[in-house]
Write a sequence for this structure.
């Protein structure tokens, strides 16, 4: 039997997303410190960075008092495009 929460603390979700973004970013930096790894896996390391940016961007949106303004300030065009349509419907 699963318990369905009646309330989700979006600030806590934002904190977790922010922490994950920082951890993924730190992992990518750590791997970049090895020149052989960096040379052999540049695209994968860039993917780590993009994942971290998206997680931190989503965290910022969840924390924002005005999600529309936060979306406009978001530096990731892919997220703006994907999330912008959901704001347009509201």
């Amino acid at each position: 039997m699963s318990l369905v929460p009646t309330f989700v603390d979006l600030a806590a979700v934002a904190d977790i997303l922010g922490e994950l973004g920082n951890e993924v970013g730190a992992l990518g930096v750590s791997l970049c410190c090895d020149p052989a790894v960096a040379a052999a896996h540049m695209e994968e390391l860039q993917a780590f960075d993009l994942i971290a940016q998206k997680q931190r961007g989503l965290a910022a949106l969840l924390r924002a008092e005005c999600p529309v303004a936060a979306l406009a300030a978001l530096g990731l065009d892919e997220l703006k495009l994907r999330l912008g349509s959901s704001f347009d419907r509201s």
In short: The chain has one domain: 10-88.
